[in-house]
């Protein structure tokens, strides 16, 4: 019989609160971007996540494209009531994978939601994000259409991803925003300047994606083994931190995290994830994986207690501006 456990929970948002598991699961890599996906393995990982109390599941229509929502839908069939289900729209793609662009038009919002509901096989989405901000459409119009989905019962709570402070404020004034999803880790801390103070002022929760630096902070990536395997987008110019001198510099930082983790009796990934978890009770990271073993390792991070001295040592080992390379090769899709 599968061992059952239960993680603690955190609440995202104050005006439209959603209670989720302290740690979520990013499902993207089960279908695309991080090497070859395997549906059966992905479903098994989601089932194990639910058994461990990881009930906050994150997907998007563009992952696959479209196939990741179908995978998640299959995995939660019969267990829907256990899950806080998040998906996203806005990065428009064709079935063959062609990228059309960012789309925040109201008519597209409505059509995208209906398509996601069908693929997921559910009657509502718990947290519906605008995946990227469409600079050609006022965000009030996009969020206004999202608010109509709440009124229709198709969506329970609204979120934004990679939005600027100005657009976060405009969106929240249109309809309460429950969560902002953005990249946040020991390797990516720029949001601490303006974005984090903004969401905390407004009572919006934070959902960090790539809290392990796209896997680099786990210590599993070495120069000898190469950055990552074939078919993995991290090999491309889209992720400069994994190339050339940048990779060397960043792995040197990971070595320092590895040393601290050894002294703490945990893995580097657990230590890095524990740092994110320690940033506040309004923070619910969604480390992605497609394998049960890595999922179980990530869950172990919730048992790592960090003192103020531990946090300071980590931040000294990985100075905020020491990471080499932009987080994306093309930052034009990031609202700023």
TrEMBL record:
Q: Which Pfam families does this one have?
A: Aldo_ket_red
Q: Which terms in the Gene Ontology molecular function aspect does this entry carry?
A: oxidoreductase activity
Record's signal peptide: none
Every NADP-dependent oxidoreductase domain range: 23-317
Plastid as UniProt keyword:
no
Q: Which Gene Ontology CC terms are recorded?
A: cytoplasm
Which domain of life does this protein belong to? Bacteria
Q: Which UniProt keywords apply?
A: Oxidoreductase
Q: What's the protein here called?
A: Aryl-alcohol dehydrogenase-like predicted oxidoreductase
Report the source organism.
Nocardioides ginsengisegetis
Q: The organism's lineage? A: Bacteria, Bacillati, Actinomycetota, Actinomycetes, Propionibacteriales
């Amino acid at each position: 019989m599968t061992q059952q456990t239960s993680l603690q929970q955190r609440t995202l948002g104050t005006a439209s609160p959603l209670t989720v598991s302290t740690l979520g699961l990013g499902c993207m890599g089960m279908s695309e971007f991080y090497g070859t996906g395997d549906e059966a393995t992905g479903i098994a990982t989601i089932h194990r996540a639910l058994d461990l109390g990881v009930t906050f599941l994150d997907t998007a229509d563009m992952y696959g494209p479209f196939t990741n929502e179908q995978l998640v839908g299959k995995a939660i069939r019969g267990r829907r009531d256990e899950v806080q289900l998040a998906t996203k729209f806005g990065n428009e793609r064709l079935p063959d994978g062609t990228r059309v662009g960012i789309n925040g038009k109201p008519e597209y919002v409505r059509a995208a939601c209906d398509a996601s509901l069908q693929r997921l096989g559910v009657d509502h989405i718990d947290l519906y994000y605008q995946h990227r901000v469409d600079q050609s459409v006022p965000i009030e119009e996009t969020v206004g259409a999202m608010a109509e989905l709440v009124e229709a019962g198709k969506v329970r709570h609204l979120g934004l991803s990679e939005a600027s402070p100005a657009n976060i404020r405009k969106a929240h004034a249109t309809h309460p925003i429950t969560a902002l999803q953005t990249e946040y880790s020991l390797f990516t801390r720029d949001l601490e300047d303006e974005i984090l103070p903004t969401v905390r002022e407004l009572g919006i929760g934070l959902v960090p994606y790539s809290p392990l630096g796209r896997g680099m902070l786990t210590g599993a990536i070495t120069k000898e083994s190469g950055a990552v395997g074939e078919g993995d987008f991290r090999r491309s110019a889209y992720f400069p931190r994994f190339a050339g001198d940048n990779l060397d510099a960043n792995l040197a930082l990971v070595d320092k995290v590895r040393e601290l983790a050894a002294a703490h009796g945990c893995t580097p990934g657990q230590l890095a994830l524990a740092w994110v978890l320690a940033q506040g009770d309004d923070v619910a990271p969604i480390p992605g994986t497609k394998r049960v073993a890595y999922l179980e390792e990530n869950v172990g991070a919730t048992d790592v207690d960090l003192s103020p001295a531990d946090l300071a040592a980590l931040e000294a080992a990985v100075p905020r501006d020491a990471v080499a390379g932009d987080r994306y090769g093309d930052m034009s899709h990031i609202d700023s």
